[in-house]
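Q: What does the assembly look like in three dimensions?
Context provided by user:
Components: two
Sequences:
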Amino acid sequence: AQKVTQAQTEISVVEKEDVTLDCVYETRDTTYYLFWYKQPPSGELVFLIRRNSFDEQNEISGRYSWNFQKSTSSFNFTITASQVVDSAVYFCALSFMDSNYQLIWGAGTKLIIKP
Amino acid sequence: DTEVTQTPKHLVMGMTNKKSLKCEQHMGHRAMYWYKQKAKKPPELMFVYSYEKLSINESVPSRFSPECPNSSLLNLHLHALQPEDSALYLCASRASGGQFSYNEQFFGPGTRLTVL
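A: Here is the predicted structure of the complete assembly.
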């Protein structure tokens, strides 16, 4: 079975706190792609990152960082020094070349940053 | 320019109306997608066009009719919709390529559709 689990339905933190959004995936394929998208209240889905299964290097982009661990099938997303503008729903997704890169979505985590 | 545009932003229609949603991208992407998203849910795939040909139809009712006039444009024609079809409709595009190409999807801002 191919599946993405985002167990955290909603997270609420105070501004400037660090927060980690969890993503666990299931697949037996050896080649796959993982993504994070941000969906603010306006509705547009914003692409944040793609990680290929053969590249376990972690990535940092400003206040955002991603930790990809194949051993635990996890692709977690950390926001450092959170800001109110980070409030959004965040989706983790999985895709495969064989299925024309259709996205298998997690349920999403709603992140609320309080001022 | 990683931009996908969608018009209109909002649409209210009656169950007997015919309307169309439009999506446009100028990134040279050859795969384009329509999604439907209900509140508090992830997007649901409706249709995929690859090189202007319909490659995936996720058992969508015939009251939704997609069209890809050229590589930059994607339309979704709506007819005799039901109130339960009210949702956010998202368009996305992706650069087609091999295993090592960029395969992320870029989304438009969506059309919020209300069916009365």
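Follow-up: Chain A touches chain B at residues 31, 33, 35, 37, 42-47, 50, 52, 91, 93, 95, 97, 100-103, 105-108 (CB under 8 Å).
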